[in-house]
Write the structure tokens for this entry.
Amino acid sequence: MRMTLARCFPALQVLCAGMFLTMLGPATVFAWQIDSARSLVTFHYEEDGEPRSGTFDRIGGTVDHTTGRIEESKADLKVATASLDLGDALREGVLATGPWLDSEAHPHAIFSLDRLTPLGGNRYEATGSLQIKDKKLPFSFPLLLEDDGREARVRGGLTFKRTDFNLRDVILESFVSIGDFIRLDFDIRSFQDARDKS
């Protein structure tokens, strides 16, 4: 008994769809390695009413991104707190102590990215958490993402109240006025390492 074209067409659709999916293969996950030599986190605060800033230049971590689904990107950005450069050894030593960054017990501040929400063009809202010492809090902030397929650059910043992370020193602050808020500006560069996740 011969099958009519009308009866064959649905079967052909299923067959063609299966062949197409086979050609596509599994989703490719790209691990973006942080380029520490070209990445920087800038630290802004006020001391006695005057703006001051410094930089962290030892930055590591990875970003996992599945092709075509940038909103599902995940990242862990680790900043070595002992790498803070304020241009003043005395201030750097104070901020490395227990009441502040406590670099010996907590060598890294960690930003974990949970998702990216497109805002148009190369603008996104990053949603995740920031951990300083033993305190971890949720954050959302806008960023710019430039990606040429091989290298990527992310720029953005967030502001937080330092006492939310228990960054305080009662004795020091009886002599010096430290502003309540700290801003971190990110300029992170990374390169791509493709991995096939079956």
